[in-house]
Amino acid sequence: MGIYRSNKRWFQAKKAAKKSLEVRQKLRKNHVIQEINVHLNEINQQQLNTTQHMIKKYVESSPIEKKRVDLVSQIEQLPQQEVFAAAHLFSTMRYSKGSNKNEILSPYLQNKAQEFISQNSYKHQSVQSLKEMNHQLLTNNKKLNKK
Fold first, then answer.
1. Strands, DSSP E only, in 35-107?
2. Which CA distances in Å does 76 have to 35, 48, 51, 79?
3. Residue 51's CB: how many other CB atoms inside 10 A?
4. Among 101, 105, 111, 125, which is most buried by a count of CB atoms within 10 Å?
5. Is residue 85 assigned to a domain?
6. Each residue of 61-81: b (16+ CB within 10 Å) or e?
7. Which structural domain, as residue segments, surrounds residue 23?
């Protein structure tokens, strides 16, 4: 009987937390809508028509177009010091040769580059450990040359 009650309370707590989250999200959404309404009241009819057209176009657009709009929005929200880095990222993370020349690297290669950076950039190696590694590599090289 005790297990049933604890499961029932856990379920009730989970349900209450979900309801609370939904209420907070709805309040946040309503706040954004109110803020948009304030801005809409301040613009002229031509700007209002243009805004309506843009919203309608976004709602009716394909998933690719929505992704493009989201991407442009992310770029517009970048801090000033990251704009040049983002531009450099777009220009350098492209295939330099082959049939895919000048196309953006595949997500697979992007993930591999990110993994490589995170594995190697944050390692703190002492001078002593680097000397030992160098000595080990030289020893292995001599052994291979003797064979």
1. none
2. 19, 21, 18, 8
3. 14
4. 105
5. no
6. eeeeeeeeeeeeeeeeeeeee
7. 1-42
The residue behind tokens 């002229």 is 44
Asked whether residue 18 is domain-assigned, the answer is: yes
Q: What is the pTM of this model?
A: 0.47
For the chain, how many structural domains are there in total? 2
Kindly report the number of other CB atoms within 10 A of residue 47's CB atom.
Answer: 12
**How many angstroms separate the Cα of 34 from the Cα of each of 16, 53, 74, 93, 142?**
27, 20, 23, 41, 74
pLDDT at 125 over 80: no
Domain annotation covers residue 50: no
Q: Which residues contact 48 (CB under 8 A, 6 or more apart)?
A: 40
Alpha-carbon distance of 44 to 32, in angstroms, equals 20
Q: Per-residue pLDDT tens for 50-89?
A: 888 888 888 888 889 889 888 988 999 999 999 999 999 9
